[in-house]
Structure formats: C-alpha cells, structure tokens
C-alpha cells in the first residue's frame, strides 16, 4: 500500500471553507481532502498557540483539558500543570459561588456564549482580574461537549477603572458640599439653640428631657448624613451581593433631599415589598448620586425630581428571555437634552458643562457600573420637557 505523503503546511494554506462549522458538524474530514483539513487544523492550532490572549478547552465539569502558553503566562502554571486542574481550585473564593451559578445557568440556557469578569489566584498567590469569553461547543447531536474559553488579563484596566470611579465619586461629593454645609449649619443652630434653652431651664426636669430628645434626634440626623457620605467616599473593591434596592434608593433619596436647594422638591414612590438585586452598595449609590446631581444641574431655577421603583416581568435586559426586573425611573422637570447630545452622553469625557465644571465621566461610569451589574440604562428627553433615566436590574428570585 502506497504511503500517503502529508502536504507541506509551511506553505500558504488553502482557502478556509468554514472549518469551524464543518468540525462542529461531525469532527471528521469528509468534505475536504485530508491534507487540506490537516493544514487548516495546524493553522488554527498555531494561531491559538501564538495568541496573546489565553485560551483553553475546559470540560463541562470545569477541568482544563488543554491550554496555550499565553494562559500559562497569565496564571503562572505550565500547560502540563493546568491539565486536569479544576477552575474552582484557582478561582478567587469570593467569586466561586457566582462562577458555578453562571456555569449552571449557561448550560441550561439556549445561549452559546457568555462573558464575565472574575478573579483568579496566580500560582505565586496574588489575585488578578480576568475577562473570560466562554463558548459552549456541542456535538453533532446538539449535546454540550466542552467549553472553549478565552482569557484576557484586565488587572491593570480594572485598577484604572477603580481609580476613575473613586475620582468621580469624590467629584460628586464635592458637588454636594454646599448642601451638606447648609444642612449642618441648620443642625448646629438647633443644637446650640436648645443647649441655651437647657441652661435657662435647668430647674425644669420635664423641659430638660424634651430639649435633650430634640438635640439627640438632630445629632443623629447629622451622624446619619455623615455615614452615608463616608460610604460614598470609600475606595473599596467591587463586592456584589444580594441587596434590597428599596433601601439603597431610599438612602440616596435622603441625601438628595437633605443637600439639594429647597427650590428642588424631591419625591419618591418606593414599594413596601423588598426587591432583591445583586449589587455593590457603594457603586449603586454612585449611580443614583450621579443621576440625581445631573437632575439638580438641569434645574437651576428649581423644579421637581421624582424617583420611582417597581418590579416588572419583561425583556428589558435581554430580548432573548423574559425575567423579573427591578425598574427605577429618575425623572426631572429640567431643561431637557436634545437628540444629538443624547447619542453622546454615555461617551467618556463628553460633557455639556463649562470647562472646569465637570470631567465628563459621570454618565460613562454609570453605564459601566450598570454593565457590571448585568443591567441596562435608557434615557428619554426633549429640550424644555425634562429628562427620564430608566435603570433595569435583574431581580433575584
């Protein structure tokens, strides 16, 4: 029998005839010659081998089957060390539960791809942020076979993003400084006034008790405001956990009502039943605060700021499926936004404010935080007719 001579794969390979669809179909070279198929397979292997991004084949149970050198460089483990290793053994413990939940939901859904940011533990012990893009590969019967995963080290990007968010948060708090100073001046006036009354009524126990109670409640109001501002100012790692969005929104509304000019009326319509979402408290406060401050700036002569929260079933977040969603509407009666500006408002560094009055990062950071929470944001506005921002968060069952 004549021995088959393999084609020289160093030459320019033949035109690709949709090899991925072909290979997914039945994994056998029936529709092209063996030489051609072999060289195309070699070409794809070389592309993955020399890719700057990590790549791995992972079993449905979460164990590495094979990987490329770039992944070894990212995680610190050799290709041989990674084979057979389970992803949960090198996943940052705080991210593991969400990782397993995402994998299980992905396997049950009709989707073929998903992406998420997560932390891995490097071989030397430090943790790093990685963007993973996961594709579910199925056999010719349509049953899941394995995951093809691409890894990108985004640690530096994540750190810069944190710094930007913190910087913008401090800018927002600076915008509230005038209102805080005014509110604290009122608090101190009450405390000093009733302290004087205490001195004048030192022989009347019932009045002492009455005045002391007023001073206590006033001081508690000041303490509550300071705690909320400190929460906003904290520079902490993103920490998504089940949270009652009613409470988060109520706290932000209280800050706005306490610090905005009296010419701006702040009203809210929040349901009694708690609505649970997966959220980072500080980041969500930042979203609300940014949008409230934008509304304040749009009403220089005063107006109405309305905040509404409701639970709905719909395709707000993904047109592919209906799900329970927390819907938050933030509506102002301000100057409004023209259509040309609306198309740009989420772009980084875009601002309509005067030089020195804003960085243009506020709404781009809001957009990024919503993405991080798997949510969405929509804006509706017309010049002279106010603006409505609608926020959509996937609700926890």
TrEMBL record:
InterPro entries: HATPase_C_sf (IPR036890), HATPase_dom (IPR003594), His_kinase_dom (IPR005467), HisK_dim/P_dom (IPR003661), HisK_dim/P_sf (IPR036097), PAC (IPR001610), PAS (IPR000014), PAS-assoc_C (IPR000700). Gene3D superfamilies: 1.10.287.130, Histidine kinase-like ATPase, C-terminal domain, PAS domain. It catalyses: ATP + protein L-histidine = ADP + protein N-phospho-L-histidine. The keyword Transferase applies. It is an enzyme of class 2 (transferase). Its EC number is 2.7.13.3. SMART domains: HATPase_c, HisKA, PAC, PAS. This is histidine kinase. It comes from Leptospira neocaledonica.
């Amino acid at each position: 029998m004549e021995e088959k001579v393999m084609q020289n794969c160093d030459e320019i390979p033949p035109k690709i005839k949709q090899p991925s669809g072909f290979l997914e179909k039945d994994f056998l070279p029936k529709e092209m010659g063996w030489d051609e198929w072999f060289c195309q397979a070699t070409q794809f292997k070389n592309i993955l081998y020399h890719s700057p991004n990590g790549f791995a084949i992972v079993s449905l149970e979460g164990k590495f089957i094979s990987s490329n050198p770039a992944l070894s460089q990212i995680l610190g483990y050799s290709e041989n060390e990674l084979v057979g290793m389970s992803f949960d053994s090198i996943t940052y413990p705080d991210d593991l539960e969400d990782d397993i939940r995402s994998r299980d939901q992905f396997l049950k859904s009709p989707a073929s791809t998903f992406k998420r940011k997560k932390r891995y533990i490097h071989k030397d012990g430090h943790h790093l942020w990685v963007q993973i893009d996961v594709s579910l590969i199925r056999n010719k019967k349509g049953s899941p076979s394995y995951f093809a995963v691409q890894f990108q080290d985004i640690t530096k990007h994540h750190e810069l993003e944190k710094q930007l968010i913190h910087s913008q948060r401090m800018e927002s708090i600076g915008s509230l400084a005038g209102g805080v100073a005014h509110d604290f001046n009122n608090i101190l006036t009450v405390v000093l006034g009733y302290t004087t009354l205490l001195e004048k009524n030192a022989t009347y126990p019932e009045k002492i008790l009455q005045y002391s109670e007023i001073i206590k409640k006033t001081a508690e109001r000041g303490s509550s405001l300071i705690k909320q501002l400190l929460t906003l100012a904290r520079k902490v790692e993103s920490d998504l956990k089940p949270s009652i969005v009613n409470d988060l929104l109520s706290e932000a509304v209280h800050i706005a009502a306490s610090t905005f000019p009296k010419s701006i009326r702040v009203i809210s319509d929040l349901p009694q039943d708690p609505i649970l979402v997966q959220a980072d408290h500080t980041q969500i406060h930042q979203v609300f605060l940014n949008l409230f401050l934008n509304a304040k700036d749009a009403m220089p002569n005063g107006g109405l700021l309305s905040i509404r929260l409701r639970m709905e079933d719909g395709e707000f977040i993904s047109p592919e499926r209906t799900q329970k969603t927390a819907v938050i509407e933030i509506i102002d009666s301000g100057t409004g936004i023209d259509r040309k500006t609306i198309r740009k408002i989420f772009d980084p560094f875009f601002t309509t404010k005067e030089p020195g009055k804003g960085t243009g990062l506020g709404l781009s950071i809001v957009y990024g935080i919503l993405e991080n929470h798997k949510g969405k944001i929509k804006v509706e506005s017309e010049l002279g007719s106010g603006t409505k921002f609608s926020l959509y968060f996937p609700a926890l069952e």
